[in-house]
Specification:
The structure is a single chain. 29% of the residues lie in helices and 29% in strands. It is α/β, with parallel strands linked by helices. The protein has a single domain, classed as 4-Layer Sandwich (Metallo-beta-lactamase, Chain A), CATH 3.60.15. Strands 7, 8, 9, 10, 11, 12, 13 and 14 form an 8-stranded mixed sheet that branches. A 7-stranded mixed sheet has the order 6-5-4-3-2-1-15. Helix 9 runs parallel beside helix 11. The longest helix is centred in the first third of the chain and has 12 residues.
């Protein structure tokens, strides 16, 4: 039996583990609009940094209702991979919480230029001055958040300016391959990832459909080429939900020889 001192050390060690949590796994407007899956993006705690990645509709609510609750006022950074609403809708409310309603100059926002400038910019001007640092993301560029190293991927093939994000932890790399159509350069851009989160919207290509999102066959070929240790599927459209993501992931595991898991709302992934 552990002594109180040892128990406290154990609790502290567990609390400091790097992890990420799916605040939502919805993809496509239909699934998001009907909230067939939640659309809050992903929350990460890596090397002491608290990060909201792509806070879509409901991110603030999902944080508050998480078990245990996630304190939105303690978020250190917000990262947007692109400007689409299912990835950015709650960015202003998260920033408002992070900066105590704009009264505290703190936190970091990292986003492509399209999110920060021009007629479709996402960030509200009155909040801009409250953020301690705003970083404009560029392709295949390294950044630092405290002692955490972050690197963008090659620019994705998507309707908006989009970059995947890789986090370099002690002994491992965690990559988030967000919305994109497949193309050869993705392989070299994500080859160093041990854990890979992939946005896989559809089971297969639809006739006369030119959506720039991954299908299951495309994801299978990418996994075979990249060879990560573990893959998590998310950002599901209607056809993926209808096909049962867990069964799809199981078949992908058999086909690729890589452990593939289907994420679910609230799923927490602790890293070794």
């Amino acid at each position: 039996m552990l002594s109180p001192k040892d128990t406290a050390k154990k609790d502290m060690t567990e609390a400091q583990k790097d992890y990420f949590k799916f605040l939502g796994t919805a993809g496509a407007r239909f699934v998001m609009a009907r909230q067939l899956r939640a659309s809050g993006g992903i929350y990460l705690e890596f090397q002491g940094q608290k990060i909201a990645l792509d806070p879509g509709p409901g991110a603030l609510l999902r944080m508050a209702h998480s078990r245990p609750p996630i304190d939105s006022t303690a978020v250190d950074a917000v990262i947007l991979t692109h400007k689409h609403l299912d990835h950015s809708n709650d960015v202003n409310v998260i920033i408002d919480a992070m900066t105590a309603g704009g009264f505290k100059n703190r936190g970091v926002l990292m986003a492509p230029a399209e999110c920060l400038e021009g007629p479709d910019r996402i960030l509200l001007p009155y909040l801009k001055k409250a953020i301690k640092e705003i970083i404009t993301l560029e392709p295949e560029t390294s950044y630092e958040l405290g002692c955490l190293k972050i690197k963008t991927s090659v620019r994705h093939r998507h309707e908006a300016e989009t970059y995947g994000i890789k986090f370099y932890l002690s002994g491992t790399v965690v990559g988030f391959m967000v919305d994109t159509k497949t193309f050869p350069e993705l392989v070299s851009s994500y080859r160093d990832c041990r854990y890979l989160v992939m946005n896989v919207l559809r089971v297969k290509e639809a006739e006369n459909d030119h959506l720039l999102h991954l299908t299951v066959p495309e994801a299978v070929e990418l996994i075979k080429a990249i060879k990560p240790q573990k893959v998590f599927l998310t950002h599901f459209g209607h056809t993926m939900l209808k096909a049962n993501p867990w069964q799809v992931a199981e078949k992908m595991s058999e086909e690729t020889g890589v452990e593939v898991l289907a994420a679910y709302d609230g799923m927490k992934v602790e890293l070794d």
